[in-house]
Design brief:
mainly alpha, Tyrosyl-Transfer RNA Synthetase, 2 domains, binds tryptophanyl-5'AMP
C-alpha cells in the first residue's frame, strides 16, 4: 500500500492578499507543520481567492512567492507536503463552477466573511466575493480531504463545504469525502493589538494592530509595547472584560506552550509593561528563525520555482481524478 491509501488527507490554504500575519501563523500554519508526518498534506497559496478583492498584480505575485517561502521556512517540507499555487491547478476553477450549481443563494448570503468583506468593500461587491465558498469547497473536495486545519473564522466555510458535499453525494452516490474542520484550542482567533475586539487581519488599516511574520524585531516590539490593555494591572484571562490582556495571554500561550494558569502566576504582582515586553520577546524569538529562513529561500528563486511546479503537478494528479469522476457523474461526455 502506498502512503496515499493509508494516510488521511489534509488540505488548507491562505490568501496571498496581504503579508502573512501572526494570526495566520498561530491559527493555521503552526499546526500544519505538526501534521506532516501523520497525514498526506496539500497546502496552497489561494491566489484565486485573493482576487475577490482588488489586488495590485506585481504585489500579488510577490506575496504568493513570499508565502511559499514562509510555508517552507515554518517547517513544511516540500518533500513530505504538496505545496502549490491554486491557479496552477485549473481543476479548482472547474469544480468551483459545478459546486456553485449545488450551493444555495441563501447559504452564501449567511456567510459572515461575505457580510464583513462586502461592508469593507462596498464599491466592489462582486459575484466572486459571493460565490467564494464554492471555490473553497472545490479546493477541499478535489483532494478528498479528511481534515481542514484553519482558524476559527473559517469554520463556517468548512461547514458549508460539508453541506455541499452531502448534497452532491445524496444525488450522485459517494463522490466526495466529508471533511472535518481542525481548529486549535488556543490560537484560533488572534485579535488586533490595537482593537482587541476585532480579529488580527492582513487587511487591517491600522498597522500597529497586526504583526507580520516577516516583520523586523524592532517593529514587532514597538507594536507589543503599544498594545491596548485595560485600566487594571492584573494579568488574568477574561475575554469579556479584559480582551486586550486575554489576547496577549493567548499569543504568549501558543508561542511558549504555557497554560493560562502558569502565565497568571508568572506575572503576579508585575505590571503590564513587563508583561507586554515578555510577550513581544517571545513572538520575536518564535518568528526569528522563520523570517531568516524565508529570506534565505527568497534568494533562491530557482528552488522555489521547482517546489511550486512539482507541487502543482502532484496536486493536479489527485485533483483531476476527482474532477473526472464528478464530470462523469454529471453526465458530461468524456473529453
Ligand atoms: P485567510 O487567508 O483569511 O487566513 C488563512 C488562515 O489563517 C487563519 N487566520 C487566523 N487564525 C487565528 N487568528 C487570526 N487572527 C487569523 N487570521 C487568519 C484563517 O482561519 C485561515 O485558516 N478562505 C480562506 C483561505 C482558503 C482555504 C481554502 C482554507 C481558501 N481555500 C481551503 C482552507 C481550505 C481564508 O480566507 O483564509
Amino acid at each position: 500500500m502506498n502512503d496515499q491509501t493509508v494516510k488521511k488527507t489534509i488540505l488548507s490554504g491562505i490568501q496571498p492578499s496581504g503579508a502573512l500575519t501572526l494570526g495566520s501563523y498561530l491559527g493555521a500554519i503552526k499546526n500544519w507543520a505538526a501534521l506532516a508526518d501523520e497525514y498526506n498534506c496539500y497546502y496552497m497559496m489561494a491566489d484565486m481567492h485573493a482576487i475577490t478583492v482588488r489586488q495590485n498584480p506585481a504585489e500579488l505575485r510577490k506575496r504568493t512567492i513570499e508565502q511559499l517561502a514562509a510555508y517552507i521556512a515554518a517547517g513544511l517540507d516540500p518533500e513530505k507536503n504538496t505545496i502549490f499555487i491554486q491557479s496552477h491547478v485549473s481543476a479548482h476553477a472547474e469544480l468551483s463552477w459545478v459546486l456553485s450549481c449545488y450551493t444555495m443563494f441563501g447559504e452564501l448570503s449567511r456567510m459572515t466573511q461575505f457580510k464583513d468583506k462586502s461592508a469593507k468593500n462596498a464599491d466592489n461587491i462582486n459575484a466572486g466575493l459571493f460565490t467564494y465558498p464554492s471555490l473553497m469547497a472545490a479546493d477541499i473536495l478535489l483532494y478528498q480531504a479528511d481534515l481542514v486545519p484553519v482558524g476559527g473564522d473559517q469554520k463556517q466555510h468548512v461547514e458549508l463545504t460539508r453541506d455541499i458535499a452531502v448534497r452532491f453525494n445524496g444525488v450522485y452516490g459517494d463522490v466526495f469525502k466529508i471533511p472535518e474542520p481542525y481548529i486549535p484550542k488556543v490560537g484560533a482567533r488572534i485579535m488586533s493589538l490595537t482593537s482587541p475586539e476585532n480579529k488580527m487581519s492582513k487587511s487591517d488599516k491600522d498597522p500597529g494592530g497586526c504583526i507580520y511574520i516577516m516583520q523586523p524585531p524592532e517593529e514587532i516590539m514597538r507594536s507589543f509595547k503599544r498594545a491596548v490593555t485595560d485600566s487594571e494591572t492584573q494579568v488574568r484571562y477574561d475575554v469579556a472584560n479584559k480582551p486586550g490582556v486575554s489576547n496577549l495571554m493567548q499569543i504568549y500561550a501558543v508561542a511558549t506552550g504555557k497554560s493560562f494558569d502558569e502565565i497568571e502566576k508568572e506575572f503576579e504582582g508585575k505590571g503590564y509593561g513587563d508583561f507586554k515586553l515578555t510577550v513581544g520577546e517571545a513572538v520575536v524569538e518564535l518568528l526569528r528563525p522563520i523570517r531568516e529562513e524565508a529570506n534565505r529561500l527568497l534568494a533562491d528563486k530557482a528552488y522555489l520555482e521547482s517546489v511550486y511546479k512539482d507541487g502543482a503537478a502532484r496536486a493536479a494528479r489527485t485533483a483531476y481524478r476527482t474532477l473526472n469522476k464528478v464530470y462523469k457523474k454529471l453526465g458530461f461526455v468524456a473529453r
